[in-house]
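step 3/5: co-fold with guanosine-5'-monophosphate
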Amino acid sequence: MAAGRRESFINDPNLDVMIDYETIQARVRELGAEITRDYANKKLHVIGVLKGACVFLSDLMRAIDLPVSFDFIGTSSYGASTKSSGEVRITKDLDISPCGRDVLLVEDIIDTGLTLNYLINMLRSRELGSLEIAALLDKPERHEIEVHARYIGFTIPNQFVVGYGLDVGELYRNLPFLAVPKNPDALARR
Ligand code: 5GP
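step 4/5: write tokens
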């Protein structure tokens, strides 16, 4: 590579493509069609979990052929020592009351399941019309707690993935595909 130039994402030797752009888009369209059928007579209110779900959410909403309201909630796990207790910190609360609405909680990935479990318990106390989960990715080998997601984009093996909203050191969320970094630490340092 010439000095000062960087390779495009697709040629990056540190990134192994796991799921390409076209495959993601085709699956998102399928999920959107399924959600459109399931929510035809409901008041669909989508809540995206920041930041990882923002790219998936924006494509998914446009694949749903219904009037949809949406909101975001921000979370971050407490330190590694408390993560296994499922303690999650809310970094941004909801702007719109979800009370009485048919809520679809949209997450980037179900890893241990602790974040979603926390959010489900929190939302259940708010007298929703209904609550379902949509997750782009599911890593069943990593589950510490079982969370039922009605809509799953892809089931993947226990590998660390980046792209399409998922980051390493806050970078690479804008990759239009999902990739496995050969060396995540090197990516985070860029
Ligand atoms: P949980 O373990 O609570 O199910 O997942 C917590 C969060 O960890 C996810 O929402 C996601 O942001 C992050 N996470 C889990 N697995 C991965 C991964 O493979 N890659 C990236 N970039 N983030 C992940």
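step 5/5: annotate
Residues 20-160 form a domain with the Rossmann fold fold (CATH 3.40.50.2020).
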